[in-house]
Amino acid sequence: MTRVIASAVAFSLVLLGFAGASAAQDGPRLNKVIELFESDEAAFGILSFDYSLNNARAMATSGLDFVFIDMEHAPFDVERLRLFLLGMTNKRSIQQKGNLQPDVMPFVRIPAAGGAEELVAQVKQVLDVGVYGVFFPAVHTREDALLAVRATRYPQYNDAPDYEPAGLRGRNPSNAAWYWGAGDYHAKADVWPLDPQGELLAMMFIESAEGVENIDEIVTVPGLGGIFIGPSDLSTSMGYTNAAAPEVEAAIQRVLQACLDNDVPCAITTGAGSVEQRINEGFRFVTVGADGGLSTGASTALQRGREAAGRD
Asked: 309 falls in which pLDDT band (50, 70, 90)?
């Protein structure tokens, strides 16, 4: 009986936040993708439009590093997002690992682009339910990127060394704090790498000719966590029907080089035929497929990508 009680107590501590483990950075980060970036390793994920609980369970045990939930081209439904995140909670894995780091990190792409009020409101809502990062579509200028970072941050305390860029996020993180299990959510809910202990990623989509033209200014915005190149929209913006056009590839390589020069993680969509090339070029964050679990093609791309990145 004593052993049963001890096991129950230990399991409860894991689910409630593991007390000291979540308050200090002596164990794994909460954000697995940031941990990979800090180790100079590549992260592999999938693009999801499916908010179902069944898909959440499939994603949670998929072997991926992240799921990129697209609320730009799927409905912006925060309540469905909340249920999806709960469905991804894998209690068995938490117990086995003994820490709160999700096996698969949930990120969200919001629909808003440009307009400050709508963008700030959407960022606040998805962060408050517990996602670990926001992807911002159609970032064309340094000002766009700066607004995105500010929307992701809380206002900092007086005399904080990273007070700027001043945060715009309103403070009511009850669901996010519960979902994370963090001892001090406010301290951890800041943008990496500006805050080295931050667990949030602010990822900017470069998908226009204007964004490519301004990439050298964009990548130097404090708090920017990465650049995601959108080849399809980029090719359309440049006036080409084919994302494989040489001019589009040259633009992709220009953005990648700016990221490499500034040690900014760079992301792109891939498949089984391109993932090894992109990893070898220096991309550190790639999608290998889309919804419906891991298809044969996505599984092949994931395996090839891991081998190319030395993570097999």
From this structure: confident
Say how far apart CA 21 and CA 27 lie, in whole Å: 6
Cα–Cα distance, 10 to 96 (Å, whole number): 11
Instruction: Report the domain count for the chain.
Output: 1
| Beta strand extents in the chain (DSSP E only) | 43-48, 66-70, 105-109, 133-136, 201-206, 226-229, 266-269, 285-287
The whole-chain average pLDDT of the chain stands at 88
Answer whether 86's CB lies under 8 Å from 79's CB: no
Owning domain of residue 189: 2-308
Cα 89 to Cα 59, 180, 230, distances in angstroms: 10, 10, 29
The answer to whether 95 touches 82, Cβ cutoff 8 Å, is no
Q: Catalytic positions, please?
A: 73
SS (H, E, C) 87-103: HCCCHHHHHHHCCCCCC
Q: Give the integer Cα–Cα distance in Å for 114 and 287.
A: 25
pLDDT at 122 over 90: yes
Nearest to 235 by CA among 221, 254, 251, 223: 251
pLDDT of residue 306: 77
Residues 6+ apart with CB under 8 A from 275: 286, 288, 301, 302, 304, 305, 308
> What residues are paired with 203 via a beta bridge?
135, 226
Q: What is the CATH number of the domain that holds 293?
A: 3.20.20.60
Q: How far is CA 295 from CA 64, 232, 272, 312, in A?
A: 13, 21, 11, 19
Largest CA distance in the chain: 71
Whether residue 22 is predicted with pLDDT greater than 60 in this model: the reply is no
- Tokens found for residue 126: 């998805």
Q: Give me the helix-helix angle, 116-129 and 142-152, nearest 10°.
A: 40
